[in-house]
Design goal:
Layout: H1 24-42, E1 46-55, E2 58-69, E3 75-78, H2 80-83, E4 88-93, E5 98-107, E6 112-117, E7 138-143, E8 151-168, E9 171-181, E10 193-195, E11 201-206, E12 214-218, H3 221-233, E13 239-240, E14 243-249, H4 252-258, E15 262-269, H5 274-278, E16 285-289, E17 292-293, H6 297-301, E18 313-319, E19 322-328, E20 331-332
Antiparallel strand pairs: 1-2, 1-4, 2-3, 3-6, 4-5, 5-6, 7-8, 7-10, 8-9, 9-12, 10-11, 11-12, 13-20, 14-15, 15-16, 16-17, 16-18, 18-19
């Protein structure tokens, strides 16, 4: 695949229902038929992957999970934690066909990674756009853990714009802007597809948090940029702040004072991070970064690419009713 080539990205806006009523049996049947249809269309694009690493005692299995074919020339999306410490492996598809794969690149901050199939792979899934998801919307999680071909669960979007802390070795990191669902996941589903009712992939499932929640990395314009960087350079040069946040609505007085309806409440500040060194504190509500309003983890993440590394990064926060100006200096994400 040409590193500069763009992949399919389909708008998945959903309109209001037609207001018709149905009895409970009809509703449950329609729900079941939707899940069956989406599972049937998505499962062929989802592989079980088993990654290995070369060590002194030979090649050993290191990680396993699922992956989704997203280009016509055999590139697959999965989780960074699934491929951590590996170089190659194999993909097994729902029809039993196999392909060797090699690691192209990984981005721990988004928990996304790209591997390339070295043999024949199924056609690509269609990528949707998580920016149009709404809380309460039906989503279907499809994984392909080894020995459990076509593992499917369904649920609704229960939260958007979340950020979660994870541990990678001795370091703590924050995965931004995850989708929270009540579709149950297990570690073998990590790297699998989260699809909307049209069968478009709106997220890559991750079980890295171990919270008993269904979590997925969204497919949106920011992650498109991340994926393109992985295809081109094998990595993403990211600026790192080190905070865990959640979007919240502002109260009426704050709306009047700031002109904003939402902000990012800081849940946790990672010790020793640029956020802590700037004076940011848990409970602060981030309103602006670099002079731009932020109201979701994605709106902050959009500002934290290579050009922000080592540069002054002004923040405006609401703290105990007062507007406070802070300046962080993001470091490069290692």
């Amino acid at each position: 695949m040409d590193a500069g080539q763009e992949f399919a990205f389909e708008d998945n806006r959903t309109g209001p229902g037609n207001g018709t009523e149905a009895d409970d049996d009809d509703i449950l049947d329609a729900y079941s038929q939707t899940v069956i249809r989406v599972a049937g269309s998505v499962t062929p694009h989802v592989a079980a992957i088993e990654m290995v690493s070369t060590r002194r005692n030979g090649r050993v299995r290191v990680g396993s999970g699922s992956a989704v074919v997203f280009t016509g020339d055999g590139y697959l999306l999965t989780n960074a934690h699934v491929v951590a410490g590996t170089e190659s492996g194999r993909a097994v598809f729902a029809d039993g066909k196999q392909s060797d794969v090699e690691l192209v690149g990984a981005d721990p901050l988004s928990d996304l990674a790209v591997v390339r199939g070295l043999g024949r792979t199924p056609p690509p899934a269609v990528l949707g756009n998580a920016e149009f998801l709404r809380v309460g919307q039906l989503v279907i999680a499809v994984g392909n853990p080894l020995g459990l071909s076509g593992s499917v669960t369904a649920g609704v979007v229960s939260g958007l714009g979340r950020s979660i802390p994870v541990r990678a070795g001795e370091h703590r990191r924050v995965i931004e802007d995850v989708i929270q669902t009540d579709a149950a996941l297990n570690p073998g589903n990590s790297g699998g597809a989260l699809a909307d009712t049209k069968g478009r992939i709106v997220g890559i499932n991750t079980a890295v948090a171990g919270l008993g929640l269904g979590l997925a990395v969204p497919i949106n314009r920011t992650t498109q940029r991340i994926i393109s960087s992985l295809l081109k350079d094998g990595r993403v040069h990211r600026a790192y702040l080190g905070l865990v946040s959640t979007p919240i609505p502002l109260d009426a007085s704050a709306v009047v004072r700031t002109g904003q309806k939402e902000g990012l409440r800081v849940v946790e500040v990672i010790a020793g991070s640029p956020a802590e060194l700037s004076g940011l504190q848990p409970g602060d509500v981030v309103l602006q970064a670099q002079g731009r309003a932020v109201s979701s983890a994605e709106s902050l993440q959009k500002l934290l690419f290579e050009e922000a590394i080592g540069q002054p990064f002004p923040l405006t926060v609401l703290r105990e009713g007062n507007l406070v100006g802070l300046v962080a200096v993001p470091s490069e994400m290692g």
